[in-house]
Amino acid sequence: MTPPASRRASFLPFAVTAATALLVSATATPAAAQTPTQPLSAADNVEVLGIDEGLPAAFGAAPAKESLADSVIEDVLGLRATELSTLDAQDRDVRVDIREATDGAAFGVAIVTAPEVEGEDPYAWLFAAELDGAVWSVGLEGTEEFSEILADSSLLDTEERETVAASADPNRISAMAYTGVGLPFSIGTSMVMTGGPHGFSGGPPYSSVDFAGGNGQARAARGGYAYSLCDGWTRVIHDNGYSTDYYHLENYQWLPGNNVGTGHYLGTQGNSVCAGGSSTGAHIHFALRGYTDPNAAGWYVALNGLTLGGWTFVEGASYGGYAYRNGVGTVYPGGWMYNYGF
């Protein structure tokens, strides 16, 4: 093994000349001159958005916004077991959007975008963070840390904070025996199921269904707190251990945490790809996420065997499968589906 440069002089022969010693000394790189590690937030495939207000004026050697973004990115990379360089090679970016900050805590959205090609999907989380000494502690939506940090903070309005923290806590709420979730259009109306169960994040679980036709309007499948993740992608966190995603929306209503009821207008079917992925033909990409399901762990939930809008879904090949309702019949991709509610 070759000793480090700073220790090489002690291994030179005793009769070394002064000139040689000076040469050896000159080749050693002083610690202070070494290139510092680049912050994650400075990477070419990272974008940091949102507010500065409410963050500390200074935070050690790095700006508070950069330091917070670094901690959020580190959690995202850890949860997805990946690296920024790997995401960059996949043409994926990371966005950190800081929405609110107060009293040493912060709340926002973290997104990993997808290339705009078929079969690639983005993924996103709400996050909560708090100052812990000289470090930001971060919790991503669906983790115990998220719920604990949010519940103990003064972020958001009191009712919103308490409801979202409890609803997204994997330990505090048991999922209901049925999903208690409808379909992404008005109860008592119909749309065409253009795509059967398929993935939202590059493969299984098959958590998503595509709808089009009808009056074209996307509406909340159950009440809850609605968050615009980007301009065309909404997530509604419900009170029963589930949340629902609505993607590709146009004529979009921006919702920064509004308490919405079942059937609340979210936008219209479209081809928006605000976080990447692809869309062929205007539609609503509708997906189910779970917090208390041990198989979901705050992630997308397989629809196979679950009932939404009065229909029980059965998966097959991606975008295939079907849905059935006893006494009514079976709907395959391309068929009309009536929303019976829940």
Automatic annotation (TrEMBL):
GO terms for molecular function: hydrolase activity. The keyword Hydrolase applies. Pfam families: Peptidase_M23. It comes from the Bacteria. Keywords: Hydrolase, Signal. Residues 231-291 form the M23ase beta-sheet core domain. Residues 1-33 form the signal peptide. This is Murein DD-endopeptidase MepM/ murein hydrolase activator NlpD. It comes from Nocardiopsis terrae.
